[in-house]
Amino acid sequence: MPTARIITDELIRSAAPNPAAVSNAKKICSLGEFSNLRKTADETLIFGECRGSGKNPYNTSADFSEETPVFRCSCPSRQFPCKHSLALMIEWLSGKNFETSDIPEDIAQKREKAAKRAERSTVQTTSPKQNKSAAEKKLRKQLEGLDLAESFVKDMLDRGVYSVSSAAADQYRALAKQLGDYWLPGLQSIMNQIVDSVQYLIGDPSDISMRNITSLLIKLASTVKKSRQYINSKLESGDVLPENNILYEELGGVWKLTQLHDAGLFKENAVLMQLSFYEVSSYDLNVDTDLGYWLDLETGEIYCTKNIRPLKAAKHIKQEDSANGVYQIPTLYRYPGGMNPRVRWESAEISDADQNAYKLIIERAGTSISEAVKAAKNELKNTLSEPYVGVLLKFDEIELADDRRAVLKLGNESITLRAYYRRFPNTCDVLAVTDSRRLRNGAIFGLLHYIPQEHHILLCPMSLIHPDGITKLC
Amino acid sequence: MNTTPFYELHDRLYDRASAGCASIAEDFRLKRAVDNMAPLAEANKTFARLRDMCAKLFTEPEPALLLADCIALADALAVVQGSFQDVPESHPSTLEYDVKYNKQAGWRSVKSLWASILTLSPHLEKLDPHEYDLLDDPRILEIFITASGEKNKYVQSFAEKMFDVYGASIVPLLKVALDMEDEKASGIQVDYVARLAGSAENEWYLSLAENESAPQNVRIKAIQALGLDSANGVRLLDFCRTEKGKVKTAALIETARLDPPGFDEILKKLISKYRDTYAPIIEASNSQTAVGFVREAIDKLCAETEKRPDQAQVNNTIKLLFRKDSVDDCFLKLLDFSRKRDDARIIIDALNCVLIDDLMLEPRGNYEALVTRLHEKEPDAFFSAWCFMLFLNDPESAAAELKNRAPTSETSTIRLLLKYCISYSQAAGKYFLKLTDIFHTAGQRGIPLFTSIPQSLLELTSDTSALYSKNADAATAERCSFFNDAIKRTSPADLDRLTAQAVKFAYAAMEVIPNPHALELISKYGAADNETLYRLVRNCAVKCFPDYQSIHAVAEEPGLTAEQKRSILSELLRLAERKNKSYVGMIKMQLSRFS
C-alpha cells in the first residue's frame, strides 16, 4: 500500500492544477500557516490545520491509502487539489515533524465509503455489453457520410483545386459539420483543415498553398477509401464491435480502458519517462491537445499521450504539464497505432529521475540514422498516420547551419534538423542558443518528417538528453 | 537509379489536380511524364504500378478518384524515396554559460513567461518567485534574444534579470540579434553589450559606428558605447568632423565627455553659434570652455531685469550645470536668484536634482566634494543632495538625519529618495539605486545599495508629513503610488515590513485626506475587517464625491457585500441628485449590478 513516503517534488507538481498553485502553496509554507501536523502510524494519511482567510483554520489532508492520492480540504477553493493540500505535501517533503495520531473519524468514514465504491466497481470491471444492432446502424450511417465526402473530393478534382474560392469556405464548413453528424470525426478534422487552408489561400494563392489543399484532398480520399473497406468488411463479417485497428478512432470510436484491456492492448508494470511535452492547437483552434512523448525504459518504445481538450469543455478538463519523474505504471493501456502509439494509465507511482534514469534513456537511443528513417518511412507514407514520427537517436555532435537549421552527426551519418513549422515552434532557434556542451555526445528526441518540396526527410528536434537531465527545446 | 522522371510525374499529377480533370486527356505534359516512367517501371514493381494507374487516367471516363489514388501512391513513393543524406554546411557552436540549468521547469510555467516576453507584458518587471528559476532555460533565453531589440521598459527590466543569470556569456547572441537590415532597429543590443562587456567589444562598436549603411540608431548606440573608453576620444573626434545629424550629435556628446585634445576648438565653434539643441553637449562637458559658457549663461539669467525669465528657461540653464564639479559659485548664485522669486522651492529642487544626478554618475570623488562644500555653506538649500550623498555611503544614518532635520512640510527630499532607491534585483540579491532617464544606458546598471531595507528608511516611508504639506492631495497620491510600486519591486524578505508601513500610512491618510489610492492599499494589504472596510469605503466615497474613481472603488471593492455596496451607492445617488446630476446615470448603472 502506498504511503506518504511516495511524495516527491514531481508528484506535487503533477498533482497541481497549475504552476501558480505550487507557488502559492510554497508561500503558505514559508508563512508557517500550518499547525497540528499529524500522520497515521502507517503513514497512509497526513493531515493538519492551515490558517486561511476564513475564521477557522482549514482541515487539510492527503490520503495515500488508495492507488491515487486523495486530497481533502475544508477550504472553499474550487481548484483541486487546493493550494493547502499541496502545501501539506510540501511540509511533509521538507521534513517537518508530523506527530503520529489516530485517523480522524470523518476521514475513516470516507475511506470506508470509498472502499465500498471500489468493491462495487471491481465487480463491474468487465466491459458493458455492446449493442450490436446499434453499432451496425452506426456503421451504415457512416457509409452514407463517406459517400458525401467522396462526392466532394470527386467534385473538387473534376473542377480543379484552382477553382476554389473564398466564397466556398462557408459551404465547406457546412460539409465539415455534416461529416460530424455522420460520426466521422477523422474526416471532419481533415475537412476543417481544408476550410482553414482555403481561407489562407485568399491571402496567398501560391503553389505551395494549392499543393497543401491537394494533399489534404488526397488524404480525405484515402481515408474515405480505407474507411469504406473497413466498414464493409465489418458489416460482411458481422463483427461490428471495436477491434485493434487505427480506423476505429477515425470513425468516431472512443476507446474505453476496459475495451483496450479486453483487446489485449495493455502492458503491466511499465516504467516510462517523458521525453517531450507540448500543447498543440487544432487547425480550427477549437481543440487543444496536451501532447506528451514517453519512452518505455524497458523496451525503448516511444509512446505518446494525448489529453484532448475541446475549448468548449476546457475549464472542466485538467491541463497537463510536462513530467520529469520516472513513472512506474501498474497497467499501461495502449491504443492501436504504429511507431508512437497513444497510451493511457489510471495510476502511477512517480519517483524523481536520477542520473541512472537519464543514462538509461541514452542507452535506449538508436545508433543508426538510416535505420530510424527507414522505420519512420513506413509510418509516414500512411495517410492515416500523423505526418511526423517520434524517434530517439544518439548523437556525437549537433552543429548549427544557416536558415534556422542544424546538422546532427552520428558516426558516419548526418541528418538535417529543422522545425516542423506547422505544429511546433522553431526548436532550431532554441538549439542555436543552447550551451554547446549540450550539443555533444548525448541523445536527441525528435520528430522525423518529410518535406515534399525538397524530397527530404528532416528531424524536428524536441529535446536533448544527457546524463544530468533533459534539455527541452519546445 | 535516376528518379527524376518520378518526381516529374509527381509534380504533373499535382498540377492536374489543380487544373481539374476535364481536359486530362489532352494533358501532353502528363502523358510525356507517364511515358518517361518506363525505365523506372522496368526496375521496380511499385513504379510500374504507378505508371499503369496513371496511364489509365487518359481513358477513364470519370478519372477524379483515380487521380486521387495516383497522387496517394505517388506521395507514398515520394516518402519512400525521401533522402536525409544531403545536409547543409554547418559549424560547431561555441556558446558556454556558467548556469545551472533548471531541468524541472514545467512547460506551462515556461510558456507563461515565454508569452509575457513575446507580448512585452508589464509582468516582466516583477516576476513571480518561481519564474526566476526559469531564466536559465534555453527556451526563455531564445525568446529573450528575439525580443532583445525591443525598446520597451518591461523587456529592458527583464534584460537586467537575464544579465544577472548569464553575465557576459550571452554577448555573442546579442551581437547576432542586432538587426542590421531594419532601418528602424533600436540598436538597444549595443547598449546591452556595452553594459556586459564594456570596452572589451570596442572593435565591434567601432565597426558598427563606421558602417554607414547600418541603421542610424545602431550607429548612435555604437558611438555612445565608444564613449565608455577614453582611448576612443580621437576616433570620436573624427566622427564629429565627418558625420551629420543625430549621429554627429551623439559623437559630439560622447567626445565632450571624454574631452580629447582638439575638441575645445569644436566646442568653441559650437558656443559661438549656440542653439538650445547644443545643450546636451555643454551638459556632457566639464572643460573650462563649457564651464565658462555656463557661468556666462547664469550671469545673463540672473541679470535679466527687463523680462522675468520663465520656469523653463531657468530649468534649462540649471541643467547645464550637470557634470561640472567646480562651479560652487554658479550654484550659490542661482540660489540667491531663487530667493527673489516665488518659485524658489522648484529651483532649489532642480539644483539638488543636478547634484543628485552627478552623484549617481560618479558616487565618489569631485561631485562628493562639491556637494559637501555647498551643504556647508547652505545646509538647508542643499540638504536633499547632501542627504542623498550620505545615503549612498550609509543609508541608515541618512534616513535618521532626514527624520531629524527635514521640516514637516518638506517632502521633496523624502520623495526623491524613495523614488530612486527601492528597486530589488532577485538574482543579485540586492537593492539598486535606479538611474534616471538622463543617462544613456551604455555601461550603466544602477548603484548597488543594501540587501534589506534599513529600518529607519522603512519608517520614513510612512512619514506622514506629506499629509500636511501644501500639496497634500498630490503628495498623498504620490506616496500611495510609491507603495503600490515599491511593494512590487521589494525583496520577498522585506515584503511584510514594507506592506505594514504602506498600511500604516494608508490608515493615517484615510483619517486626514480620505482618498481612493490609500483605500486601495488598505483593501489590498490591510486585512481590515468588514465593518472597518465598510466605514472607510463609505467615508472615502462621500468625502471625495463627486469623483469617478471613488464610485468605481465602491463597486469593485471585493471585501464588501452586495448589500453594503448598494447602501453606499444609494447614499451617493442621493448626493448626486442634490449636488451633481451628471453622476446620477453612472451611479445608477453601478447600482443595477447589485440589485
Structural notes for this entry:
The complex is a heterodimer of chains A (about 475) and B (about 600). Chain A has helices at about 10-15, 20-30, 85-95, 105-125, 130-160, 170-180, 185-205, 205-235, 245-250, 255-260, 355-365, 370-380, 425-435, and strands spanning about 35-40, 45-50, 60-65, 70-75, 100, 265-280, 285-295, 300-310, 325-335, 345, 350, 390-400, 405-410, 415, 440-450, 455-465, 470. In chain A, strands 6, 7, 8, 9, 10 and 11 form a six-stranded antiparallel sheet that branches. Chain A is α+β, with helices and mostly antiparallel strands. Chain A has 13 helices and 17 strands. The mean pLDDT of chain A is about 90. Chain A is about 40% helix and about 25% strand. Chain A folds into four domains: about 5-125, no CATH class; about 130-250, no CATH class; about 255-360, no CATH class; about 365-470, OB fold (Dihydrolipoamide Acetyltransferase, E2P). Chain B has about 600 residues and is mostly helical. A three-stranded antiparallel sheet of chain B has the order 2-3-4, with no helix packed on it. The longest helix of chain B is centred in the first third of the chain and has 18 residues, at about 65-80. Chain B has helices at about 5-20, 30-35, 40-45, 45-55, 65-80, 105-120, 140-145, 155-165, 170-175, 190-195, 200-210, 215-225, 235-240, 245-260, 265-270, 280-285, 290-305, 310-320, 330-340, 345-360, 365-375, 385-395, 395-405, 410-420, 455-460, 470-490, 495-510, 515-525, 530-545, 550-555, 560-580, 585-590; strands spanning about 90, 425, 430-435, 445-450. The chains are: A alpha+beta (about 475), B mainly alpha (about 600). The interface between A and B is large, with 81 and 62 residues. Strand 12 of chain A pairs antiparallel with strand 1 of chain B.
